[in-house]
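REQUEST FORM: STRUCTURE PREDICTION
Request ID: SP-0412
Submitted by: Lab K.M.
Chain count: 1
Length (residues): 175
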Amino acid sequence: MVEDTNDSRPARDLALPLRIVVGGAFALIVFLTALQIFFRSVLDSPLIWSEELVQLLLVWVVFIGAVVVCWDGQHLKIDIVLNKMPPRMRNAVNVFNTVVALAVLIVLAVGAVPLIRLNMGVEMSALGIPLSWVRAPALVGGVLAAGFVLLRRFYRIPRRSDHDAAKRHTSLSED
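STATUS: Completed
RESULT:
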């Protein structure tokens, strides 16, 4: 088990694909908002669908961004207080934070299921897609975040360079 401290980040960034998706979605939100302003203000012909799409993307960005925050270990943490604690107490607080984060994420994911079911038959007015797509990020984000919290707490996936450095160290000590 790896201690979850400020300076112990997981070796591989498993959240990198999510970072790229969130960055792309955020860029799309900015673009669509600017486009919406242009069409409404300059052309006096507002885009009907863009506001709903921006809302949908924003909800997904928030929940997938929360998954990235969980991977980075930045949930429920006040670094200035944590850094002043003795290592044993810091580890106990980190375990407590993990348990609380998992509890909240489980409640979030479980609570999202009835909302998704309830909104499956209702369509967004302009996009024509089920409103459940606005509720689904809570379930997807909650499950992914819980998985990343657990991965961060219990596993460290070594980088190739870390493995090579350990190998070199071992071979040097054997000589």
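NOTES: The helical segments are 16-41, 50-72, 79-83, 87-119, 132-154, 160-174.
Reviewed by: T.R.
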